[in-house]
Amino acid sequence: MLTTELSNGIAMPRLGFGVFQMADLNLCEEAVISALTCGYRLLDTASAYENEAAVGRAILRSGVARKEIFLTTKLWVQDYGYESTKAAFYRSLERLQTDYLDLYLIHQPYSDIHGSWRALEDLYREGVIKAIGVSNFSSAQLADLITFNRIAPMVNQVETHPFCQQWQAAEFMQQHHVAIEAWAPFAEGKNEIFTQPLLTKIAQRHQKTVAQVILRWLLQRNIVVIPKSVNPQRIAENFAVFDFSLTEQDMEAISTLDLGKPLIANHADPERIKFIGTRRFAT
Ligand code: NAP
After folding, report:
1. Distance CA 34, CA 32 (A)
2. Distance between CA atoms of 99 and 236, rounded to whole angstroms?
3. 125 CA distance to ligand 1 middle (Å)
């Protein structure tokens, strides 16, 4: 498995499996087993997805050793602050039926992120989290966290796909040794991405699918990527991306699709911040 080395030396699989919008817990459990059977070794869930227990059951049922799996979950906003972060972390561990996490992320860049970050630093020092990071942080928000804390985030998980390519953000992260992880690599199917003409042409030339071309394009940019699917065929398709390479010309051509802004979630939008503040989950 291709990996990305995090700033603390931990190897993170470059290709993983996301489980957002899998509210049907049986479907989620089967999808995770399907992914692990295929060879995926990175799982990405969140307390806000309300499916950590299904992921935990799938890991146990899969027969794959826990230590072979790079397990990520995320802290939701309602649990921010030093003490409540620690409590939320242990509740996630319990639901996942594990005694450590490979990666714990602060899910949203608002509210008491510094209090939560100090809790993550302490849990990391205790060894119950192997790597700590954030999600949806702008370069300014990353700089704030890096400047006013002891440990810098090792990962920032952000919306990244052909219509939102994150070049500037990725450069800032690279300069600060923060690994970039792409969420919604397929833009959640928006903008007719799977039939986009340029991507279709490149896919046909390589005898691959558009989904595979997108994943390959991200992997070749050294971006960790976590596609989601509940369909066993597509789960396998999304993992079959290590037997071809995109050319420099393919990479450059895909860069022309960038719209330079998020398509799914604009984290700088005040209305979105207010909306996030209202979201409560059974965490
Ligand atoms: P995504 O992976 O971009 O797209 C998923 C959609 O694409 C689903 O409708 C899926 O349908 C379809 N699909 C998957 N593989 C396909 C293929 N080979 N051909 C055609 N269609 C395909 O969207 P996402 O789930 O939002 O993002 C991926 C992961 O990122 C999430 O699961 C989650 O772990 C993470 N994420 C994080 C954040 C954050 O704020 N940190 C936000 C969103 C997502 P089927 O399931 O029916 O195959």
Report:
1. 5
2. 29
3. 32
- Please state the pTM of the whole predicted model: 0.98
Encoding tokens for residue 9?
């030396």
Q: Work out the angle at residue 129's Cα, subtended by the Cα atoms of residues 90 and 112, and round it to the nearest 5 degrees.
A: 65
Rg, C-alpha atoms of the chain: 18
Closest CA to 229 of 216, 218, 238: 238
Residue owning tokens 């809790």:
119
Best probe residue, ligand 1, of 15, 17, 19, 20 (max atoms within 8 Å of C-beta) = 20
Residue 262 C-alpha to ligand 1 middle, in angstroms? 15
Pick from 77, 208, 228 the residue to mutate for probing ligand 1's pocket: most ligand atoms within 8 Å of its CB: 228
Q: Where are the alpha helices (DSSP H) in the chain?
A: 25-38, 52-62, 82-96, 113-126, 139-147, 167-175, 197-206, 210-220, 232-239, 248-255, 270-278
Separation of alpha carbons 144 and 172, rounded Å: 13
Q: Which two tokens stand for residue 198?
A: 């340029």
* Span 253-273, pLDDT tens digits: 999 999 999 999 999 999 999
For residue 252 the two structure tokens come to 């450059």
Instruction: Kindly give the distance from the C-alpha atom of residue 212 to the centroid of ligand 1, in angstroms, as a whole number.
Output: 13
Phi, psi of 70, deg, nearest 5: -100, 105
**Structure tokens belonging to residue 86:** 């620690």
| DSSP letter, residue 253 | H
Task: Locate 261 and state its tokens.
Answer: 């802004």
**Which ligand 1 atom sits closest to the C-alpha of 108?**
40
Nearest to 73 by CA among 114, 128, 10: 128
Residue 82 annotated among the catalytic residues of the structure:
no
Convert the pLDDT of each residue in 116-156 to its tens digit. 999 999 999 999 999 999 999 999 999 999 999 999 999 99
Choose the catalytic residue: 49, 80, 104, 124.
49
